[in-house]
Every structure is written in structure tokens, then in C-alpha cells.
Specification:
With 387 residues, the protein is α/β, with parallel strands linked by helices. The chain has 2 domains: 3-284, Rossmann fold; 290-385, 2-Layer Sandwich (GMP Synthetase, Chain A, domain 3), CATH 3.30.300. The protein contains 10 helices and 26 strands. The strands form 7 sheets. It has an 8-stranded mixed beta sheet, with helices on both faces. Strands 3-2-4-5-15 form a 5-stranded mixed beta sheet. Helix 6 (149-158) crosses helix 7. Residues 57-251 form the AMP-dependent synthetase/ligase domain. It comes from Tritonibacter multivorans. It is an enzyme of class 6 (ligase). Residues 302-372 form the AMP-binding enzyme C-terminal domain.
């Protein structure tokens, strides 16, 4: 592979629609000059250009349940999926991308680089607020959106009118509930909704389509091999192992005991199962799993049930340790809700062990720049509330 093939490139037709957005000019110049790029969600500037040959990308993990780690990857690991998305979804120079999140988050960083590589327009809309983002999407004729479900939910809450120009929405970083899916179909009537599962370390793992069963995050993305633990039996829940050309090189800073390589496969501690058709169903992270009444309980499964209930705007589950009872399930919930109805729904779908002991109403959830709930901050708020 030549140096040109290894580096990011700015296609001649690429257009920067928001030149004053934070990090926009630096991104543009660094790609054109072949510089390495570091993105950060916690520094004063979202991007930093770095010297060095060959070109590399450094981005932070989301830090939703621990300190962010600095991830190192080659441009080729992302360029491979740029070309797949371009061909599979018919993206070209006439398209315009909206990136709703901060460039310091790997999803937003990826989407911005995909846009300039393909030669589309790029609008960086972080910091505008939902109303400002909605107005900018109309003004720039946005056709393609990359976002988290939380970011999309905010757009639907403030904007009742439809966006007929939008053709595709790629979303990840959280499960989309059925209510939000209906709202998105109303606001974006011509858009294909593509849910993907992945992480900063893995990039794309699975991608959903119109045939994906409820509760699944789709089938393996092109050129991805999946394996569940050491079991050969379909339907068994186990650790998800991934092998693909999109995997990261390693951690530049920080480490995770859950990140393990084995015969070319990578695991980051996610648990799930595969059905006979190859659809992946997530259970949650090993690091968040707790044992209640001798049963393994995944907070993510509780969150999925809760956010689908009437009146729930957002939710996050924490499991603080009680010296007498052990792990207790606390569900922080935003919205006008009936606590008994929420417990009943969890009991019906997940069993008694997964019923939240406490429903904690909040006006808003603390959020990370990545668009995910800040679980560490939420746990701190809970501790302060109970001291």
C-alpha cells in the first residue's frame, strides 16, 4: 500500500459548509497536508494536528463508564468503510453530511472524515442546540446524518416539521426505542434509518436494515467476522469477538482489562448472542453486569425496556452497592412517568431480578460530549443525594 493509499484525502468536490465551526479548518488543512490528527472531547479544542509519518488517527473512547482512553488507528482502517458506505448507500458529491456531535467524539470525527473523503458537503453542527441544528440542516440541504439516539431525540422534540431532503440517518452509541423510531419516520419520511453497533476500538461491527428483527442491532457489517464466546450453539449469550479490517491498532494512552486480542479477533467486553440468520442481539457490557438474586442483570437491558415506556424521555441505570442488599438497581428517568408502571414493564420483560428498586426522577441526565449518559457523574450525584 502506497503512502497516498494509506492517508486520508480531501476529494475535489468536498465542501465545508460550516467553515467557522470548531475544528473545521484544522480538519480540512490536516487532511490536505497529510498530518496525523488527535481528537479530544475534554480539551479546549476538539482537534489537534500532529507531525509524523505515517499518518495516524488518535481518538478518545466515549468514557461512558470509565476514564476515556486514547485510541490509535490507521487511516486505512476507516477508509475501507468509507468506500463501502459510498457504494452501498449511493453517497456522492451531491450529498451533504450533518454531524451533530462534538468532533472530539470518534463517531463525529469518523463522519466528518468520511464526508470529505467521499467528496460531499460537511456541516459540523455541535454547539448549536437542537433548534439551531434543525435550522442548519434545512439551510444546507442535508441528506446524510450521523448521530446518537439521544441527539436525534432532541431534534424531534423541538422540530415538528419534516425534513424531506434527508435520505439516510446513521445512528449508534445507544439503543433506539420504538417511540423514537416512529418519530424519526415522521420527521424524516424519505430517510433510511441505519442502526450500527460498534465502538471506538472496533469501528463498524453490525449494521441494521428494514428486515432487522426488533431488538437486534443487525448483521455483520461487510468484511466483519463475528463469534460469540467459545460456544458453537446459536442463541447462547457470550462475549462478542470481532475480526475485521476496521479494528484499531492499540491504546496510545490508558488501557482496559476488558480489551483482549485472540487469534486476530478482538473483544472489548460486550456480551450478546447470534440467531440462525446472523442477527446480533446485545445484552450489555461485562463491566456493567451485576448479580441480583443469583441472576446476571445487564443495566442496558433495563434501559431498553424503560425508554420504550410512555412518558419516558431518557433513562440511565446505575447499580450502586448497598452494604446490606448488595447491588441495587437505580433507574434515573427523565419524563412524566408512573414508577409502578415502569417496574411492572421491567418485571414482565426481564423478570423480578431486573426490576429497579428505585425510580429516580431527574429533569435531565448528565451527558458526555459523545451524546451518551455520563454514568460516572450520575453515580456521583446519587452518592451526594444519599449522604
Amino acid at each position: 500500500m502506497t503512502r497516498l493509499e494509506e492517508s486520508f484525502q480531501t476529494a475535489p468536490t468536498a465542501r465545508l459548509l460550516t467553515p467557522d465551526a470548531a475544528g473545521a479548518a484544522l480538519l480540512w488543512n490536516a487532511v490536505q497536508n497529510g498530518a496525523s490528527l488527535r481528537s479530544s472531547a475534554i480539551s479546549a479544542t476538539p482537534l489537534q494536528a500532529l507531525p509524523g509519518d505515517p499518518q495516524r488517527v488518535f481518538c478518545e473512547s466515549s468514557g461512558s463508564s470509565g476514564a476515556p482512553k486514547l485510541i490509535r488507528r490507521s487511516p486505512a482502517s476507516w477508509r475501507a468503510s468509507f468506500d463501502i458506505n459510498k457504494a452501498q448507500f449511493g453517497i456522492g458529491p451531491d450529498d451533504a453530511y450533518a454531524v451533530l456531535g462534538h468532533l472530539g467524539h470518534s463517531l463525529s470525527f469518523y463522519a466528518a472524515l468520511e464526508a470529505v473523503h467521499i467528496g460531499a458537503g460537511l456541516a459540523l453542527l455541535a454547539g448549536l442546540g437542537p433548534k439551531g441544528q434543525a435550522a442548519a440542516m434545512r439551510a444546507h440541504g442535508i441528506t446524510t446524518i450521523y448521530a446518537t439516539p439521544s441527539q436525534l431525540r432532541l431534534i424531534t422534540r423541538v422540530e415538528p416539521a419534516a425534513f424531506p431532503a434527508v435520505q439516510r440517518i446513521f445512528f449508534g452509541g445507544g439503543k433506539m426505542d420504538p417511540t423514537l423510531r416512529v418519530l424519526l419516520a415522521e420527521r424524516f419520511p424519505t430517510a433510511q434509518l441505519m442502526e450500527f453497533f460498534g465502538a471506538s476500538e472496533t469501528s463498524f461491527v453490525t449494521l441494521s436494515d428494514d428486515q432487522t428483527p426488533e431488538g437486534s442491532v443487525g448483521r455483520a457489517y461487510p468484511n466483519v467476522k463475528l463469534r460469540i464466546g467459545d460456544s458453537e450453539a446459536l442463541g447462547d449469550t457470550g462475549e462478542i469477538w470481532v475480526k475485521s479490517p476496521y479494528l484499531f491498532d492499540g491504546y496510545e494512552e490508558g488501557e482496559s482489562p476488558l480489551t483482549v486480542w485472540q487469534d486476530g479477533f478482538l473483544s472489548i467486553g460486550e456480551m450478546g448472542r447470534l440467531d440462525a440468520q446472523g442477527y446480533l442481539y446485545l445484552q450489555g457490557r461485562k463491566s456493567r453486569m451485576v448479580t441480583v438474586a443469583d441472576q446476571n442483570v445487564f443495566p442496558e437491558a433495563i434501559e431498553t425496556v424503560l425508554v420504550a415506556q410512555p412518558g419516558v424521555v431518557a433513562t440511565a441505570v446505575i447499580t450502586p452497592n448497598d452494604p446490606v442488599r448488595g447491588a441495587q438497581i437505580v433507574a434515573a428517568v427523565v419524563g412524566d412517568v408512573d414508577a409502578s408502571a415502569l417496574r411492572k414493564a421491567c418485571r414482565a420483560e426481564l423478570g423480578e431480578a431486573a426490576v429497579p428498586r428505585i425510580i429516580w426522577p431527574l429533569p435531565d441526565l448528565p451527558m458526555l460530549p459523545a451524546g451518551k449518559p455520563d454514568l460516572q457523574h450520575l453515580e456521583t450525584l446519587w452518592q451526594e443525594r444519599n449522604t
